[in-house]
Amino acid sequence: QQTASLVVDGAPRNVISRHIYGHFSEHLGRCIYDGFWVDESLNVPKKDRIRLDVVEALKKINIPNLRWPGGCFADEYHWRDGIGPRTERPKMINTHWGGVTEDNSFGTHEFLELCELLQCEPYISANVGSGTVDEMSKWVEYLNFSGLSPMTELRKQNGHAAPWKVSFWGVGNESWGCGGNMTAEYYVGEYRRYATYARNYPGAPLKKIVSGANSGDYHWTETCMKGIPLNQMWGLSVHYYTVPKTWGDKGSATAFSEQEYFTTMQKCLFMDTLVTKHSAIMDKYDPKKRVALAVDEWGIWTNVEPGTNPGFLYQQNSLRDAMIAAVTLNIFNNHSERVRLANLAQTVNVLQALVLTEKEKMLLTPTYHVFDLYKAHHDAKRLSIQLNSPDYNVGGEKIPALNVSASQDSTGTVHISIVNMHPSQKVSLQTTLKDVKWKNVTGQVITSAKFTDVNTFAAPDKIRIQKFDGARKQGDQLTAVLPPQSVVMLELK
Ligand code: AHR
Q: From which domain of life does this come (predicted)?
């Protein structure tokens, strides 16, 4: 057993925006079609064709926002094809994801109905790569204007009198790649033009999000911050995926060695470096931190499950995924002065999913359970921490075994989330709480015998939240013995 020490400072800092806990749903594989939006004949509770068991599961974790329609798909999506009578909607090819035919049966109205059912905020990523300024401008008018106008009339004809007042608005996606292969300098000009005509209508100001860097492309961030006036953007995005091996052979979601587990966790921790460096560039141009860093795509990306369509990005979700989610969310919490929105890719049946479905069946992944635990941090005040962690060494490389964040909610309750990445050693953690009044501690844990363990349709509850009774109050100190490969949430009241 190893030992570690932690100091939690009770002086509250900034609020951890609940929007850090956002999700992403693209027209990709079985996320929208056969995920959220199912065939009429499927024997599950539905509203229209929206699958309500999936909705209920996501409501339980207080999903704050949902990004749509992509991803790469967003930059070839033409919103007018997805409104009006479904039988009359034109079809298109989804060229990025499997070359399948998109029938446009899930469009603007269906997405906003889904968000209403989820009680979450929509985050629409609009087409810059193959769209026009006018097309984007009209979409905003259709969504957000209540006065007399052509788009208001069209929306009314399509059965929705009131505007939806969408606020999160992505101006392009990955404009350096699938969103148009632009240079940063070119994109800045495009952004300024598109954003000008994406209007703020009465009662419906947009939170415009600049399509940001690919991982460590700091030039992109610098160019956007230098070239776009601060009052023309709410946020600037960055995308980073944890790929266990290489983009050519990403590695299996379920069969991997300890070396590969270690490398994956090491790559996951790189998010801290990325966020720190992008934030430092943003600080130069925006010292008051008015612009949010929006990590609007993140998560583990492995090879697809054998036998599934390579263009559909269907992967299983193991205990390793739970630890990636928990570590990343801790990183976001600790950087929440700047990181104020994030979206895990992708909610159902794609990449690091929360929910997997197979016909009528549905299961909650280990990642889902982390989001369930971590909802305690939504809109709570960040507490600063100092951690002294033992190392976890493999093959001459090391990472800290522990990863932590802490917050205090509006009732005064403190939550400390701790990941022990070491797969075989417990860690005894001694915590000093400065200026925190508390009487007792309770806890919950996510763990399993192997880091490759998964939930399956045959055994959907193998990995779930369990009671943790390894924490004690000893005088003013908090002690906890953290099981190997575990995510623990402590609650101090
Ligand atoms: O999430 C899958 C894809 O990854 C998205 O479509 C794209 O934005 C990113 O490259």
A: Bacteria
